[in-house]
Amino acid sequence: MRHYLIKRIICVITFISLIGCDRQLHIYYNIVDKVDRVVITYKKTGLKKILTNIEIETFKNHLKRNIQPELQRVFINDVLVELYSDSKRIAFLLIYQGVKDIGFVNFNSDNLNFGFRLTYGIGMFIGGN
After folding, report:
1. The CATH number of the domain where 76 resides is what?
2. Which long-range contacts (CB under 8 A, 24 or more apart) does 109-113 make?
3. What is the pLDDT of residues 88-104, one digit of tens each?
4. Which of 47, 74, 79, 128 is most buried, taking the most CB atoms under 10 A from its CB?
């Protein structure tokens, strides 16, 4: 009986966490879909890059691929990506590209904050300027 109760509790916790991740991703995707301007700032060089409309669509596709929400991490970012909609900043990403370890991204907006591992697509798109 005790074993059954523990299994049940683990199943409920797993189910709740999966629903929470799906909800986070749904909100995240809605934010990304609204983006009409992207500014990428490279901390090392101070270079700012404003994406063209074609680049924005490509980048938005990368932002929606293989994202698995995690808790945010503390790090010194290499890149700042600001996401705008109708001239208002609606979100930003702090990106650590990683040298010896896997890079990481902290996503921040007014109503959603989470982290995720830097994906290959995002890493390749922003490059190492």
Report:
1. 3.30.1490.410
2. 109/31, 111/27, 112/24, 112/27, 112/28, 112/31, 113/72
3. 999 999 999 987 778 99
4. 79
Handedness of CA 30, 28, 95, 104 (dihedral sign): negative
Kindly state the tokens that stand for 90: 């609606």
CA separation for the pair 80, 83 (Å, rounded): 10
Range of the domain at 77: 2-126
pLDDT digits (tens, 9 = 90+) for 113-124: 999 999 999 999
Residue type, 17: S
Distances 93 to 28, 41, 89, 109, 113 between C-alpha atoms, Å: 12, 11, 11, 9, 10
The rounded distance, in Å, linking the Cα atoms of 79 and 48 is 10
| Structure tokens, 129 | 């300027």
- Digit-coded pLDDT (tens) for 16-56: 443 446 889 999 999 999 999 999 999 999 999 999 999 99
